[in-house]
Fold:
Amino acid sequence: MAEEKNTQQAEEKAPLTESEINEQMQVRLDKMHKIAEHGWQPFGHKFEWTHHAADIAEQFEELSANETIVRLAGRVMAIRGHGKTCFMDMMDKSGRIQLYVRKDAIGEENYALIKMMDIGDIVGVCGTVFRTHMGELSIKAVSLEMLSKSLRPLPEKWHGLKDIEMRYRQRYVDLIVNPEVRDTFVKRSQIIKSVREILDNRNFLEVETPIMHSIAGGAAARPFVTYHNALDMQLYMRIAPELYLKRLIVGGMERVYELGRVFRNEGIDIKHNPEFTIVEIYQAFADYKDMMELTETIVSQTAQKVLGTMKITYEGQEIDLTPPWNRMTMIEAVAKYTGQDFTGVTDIEEARKMAAAINVPIEKTYGIGKIINACFEEHVEDKLIQPTFITGHPKEISPLAKSSVENPEITDRFEGFIYAREICNGFTELNDPIDQRERFVKQVEERNAGDDEAHMMDEDFVNALEYGLPPTGGLGIGIDRLVMFLTDSTSIRDVLFFPHMRHKNQ
Structure:
């Protein structure tokens, strides 16, 4: 216990200054040269391992009874020396385990290597398993070798936990000193695997479509622009794969999905990153109601598979993902939370007065649909804590969605919200090429008027629709936000290995 206390006290020292880091690096460089002078390699080669730390705990009885020789590799996280005996804590991807190293067991010459080791070094150990008199699971080393000398000291543990800036910029260090961060990204991988399995089991085909587009489309967003020298043409990093995936439905693929990165030249905050991961799904002969059911299935079953429950806790709030989710139209939601009922409103001046009554700023170019949406975003989104589908989006803000049979100015579209954040968007796809062309023309007019998020005209997509797109349901789910909810992560940066950040000097 005294050893553990001393180690913890050392970790809680004030963080190192740049000068101290440089001094420690020089000391480590000197040790690296000494290792080479002794004939060892400071940066080794392949190491044949047989177990991870977690395996030792699971198989302890069998391994100890048979005195099985085990081989493990990992990073040194603590060193406690006592003359002819040394204890080390070694960490691999599965956890930590203690190494017990004696001079008489590995030889005096090899034991000299211990003096040239530092916290952060990567080593390989060979030995037998046992428990100390304190009951700690340990490896009694018969050999120890250097696999990679760490030339830069790790940050002090407790201060490193608080240095958010360093954690995001140097994720490799964050993963070393904060095991819970590694758990988040393991869960991210499991979540993505679950989404794929659910879709594959429903006979959806995973496909790949272009990342660089000649026309930015499929979403209302500002694209990143690049240039292809050989083709002498401007290209856009995709803001969505939607229009290409629907071309595949035209071609008879019937059920397709793509899980990958999209890029939007927009702001950065706890919910947004310039590049992020989505899954877009399209099903022929289906509609938006089928896509809502599919959304509930993907989210709830993934939570059950990864976390073992459909009831999660996010930022202290219990969220029940169990289907069916709540459902409201956008007009119903605005009326519920503001008292302003836009049902049947067709006069633009009346709509403007209703928005003004609840202090919602609007642009002069807004039609009634955009005014309703502005009221929704201003007063309703932050109220949608439990999983809720908002339906009945105005045609004005849904250029790719099919109009409702009951009201042509409303579309068969939905957005899913959890904890006041949009997690998905889906609709019955517009498959009328004449209507689609007219909507593109309207979008082009808005773009020419200064809206750089409005859609461009895509003649080839209209051409595809003219061959016939079957009735189709479409859905996009934000994978990063789903991971945030299922790992209780406040910021999108917590679920991206390498989030985008400003330069340090900005």
